[in-house]
Amino acid sequence: MHTFDKQAARAATLADPRWVAVQARDAHADGSFFYSVRSTGVYCRPSCAARAARPENVAFHATAAEAERAGFRPCRRCRPHQPSLAQRQAALVTAACRAIEHAEAAPTLEQLAQPSGLSPFHFHRVFKAVTGVTPKQYATAHRSRRVRNELERSHSVTEAIFDAGYNASSRFYETADQVLGMTPSSYRAGGVDSEIRFAIGACSLGAILVAQSERGVCAILLGDDPDALARELQDRFPRARLIGGDRDYERLVAQVVGFVEAPAIGLDLPLDVRGTAFQQRVWQALREIPAGSTASYGEIARRIGAPTAARAVAQACASNLLAVAIPCHRVVRNDGGLSGYRWGVPRKRALLEREAQA
Ligand SMILES: [Zn+2]
């Protein structure tokens, strides 16, 4: 029979980045996790307006179902077992982001709003509130990101422009200063560097580092040693200025931790995915493997139209900087066995087991 260790329970809650979100009653964290209160037997969303719980009584749960399995009942006030407004809006906005990313030409506001059933005006407001940018800015940023990636890899600037879907280079040069903050040739020469904010927290898989550029989440790293994670970030972004996270930023970390604990929920944050065109194709294919299933390296190679490139696919998986968000843990050997994982085979196994249960 184990006794309740109040000090340990209190320390565990205080060390968890999700506690910051609970104390702030942060509606942005709704849907990414739930918390239960031992003294009342109730579980809540992070934003619940109920009286603050003592940290020693608090436990975190990835899903409402998990909180119920642990014997807690839903709070009557915040109704944590029903989808929140924020969750419904996040789903709409995520769908719109995917539509923008996959469209050849940027969809109109009317086209984007249509599936949501909202008026274009209302949809625009919701999109801006969730992402911080307008649909048009998101489309421009997405296209310029593709241009950046192509520039880094290709010899000719003109070729890069056509690869990225700009139909006339004169139009590209008109907007190049806006999207790159400099001319294309100076970007290729190395150019100026960005600021990257980051913070390190703890999750059930160990230490977790979350980093964000001005374009989106650019790294989610897992490991045992927080210092090693910070060094790895510096190695991967040698020219960036790294800034430790502040209070505001911890909210984002809480959201990512919630997502890592329950990947099926999805992460409704823009990602800043940096890699060669080939790596991007592999990573996009990984994002299309649903939670709870796996694919082999050979299958991914076939899906991206490069059936002999299984080894290169494995290398692209190993270069992934966005743990769980780009689910390289869902790629297995051709015989179904777990092969290497950038962040260790035990973490891969834990993630796959968790997703199989959900
Ligand atoms: Zn509640």
From TrEMBL:
Regions annotated as coiled coil: none
This protein's UniProt keywords: Activator, DNA damage, DNA repair, Metal-binding, Methyltransferase, Transcription, Transcription regulation, Transferase, Zinc
Cofactor field: Zn(2+)
Residues covered by the HTH araC/xylS-type domain: 108-190
Sample GO molecular function, one term: sequence-specific DNA binding
EC number(s) stated in the UniProt entry for this protein: 2.1.1.63
Binding site for Zn(2+): C44, C48, C75, C78
Enzyme kind, highest EC tier: transferase
Keyword Aminoacyl-tRNA synthetase listed: no
Cofactor annotation comment: Binds 1 zinc ion per subunit.
Catalytic activity as recorded in UniProt: a 6-O-methyl-2'-deoxyguanosine in DNA + L-cysteinyl-[protein] = S-methyl-L-cysteinyl-[protein] + a 2'-deoxyguanosine in DNA; a 4-O-methyl-thymidine in DNA + L-cysteinyl-[protein] = a thymidine in DNA + S-methyl-L-cysteinyl-[protein]
GO BP terms: DNA repair; methylation
Active-site residues, as the UniProt record annotates them: C44 (nucleophile), C328 (nucleophile)
Family matches, as NCBIfam families: ogt (TIGR00589), PRK15435.1 (NF011964)
UniProt similarity note: Belongs to the MGMT family.
PANTHER family named among the record's database cross-references: BIFUNCTIONAL TRANSCRIPTIONAL ACTIVATOR_DNA REPAIR ENZYME ADA (PTHR10815:SF14), METHYLATED-DNA--PROTEIN-CYSTEINE METHYLTRANSFERASE (PTHR10815)
The protein's name: methylated-DNA--[protein]-cysteine S-methyltransferase
Species, as recorded: Rhodanobacter thiooxydans
Organism placement in taxonomy: Bacteria, Pseudomonadati, Pseudomonadota, Gammaproteobacteria, Lysobacterales
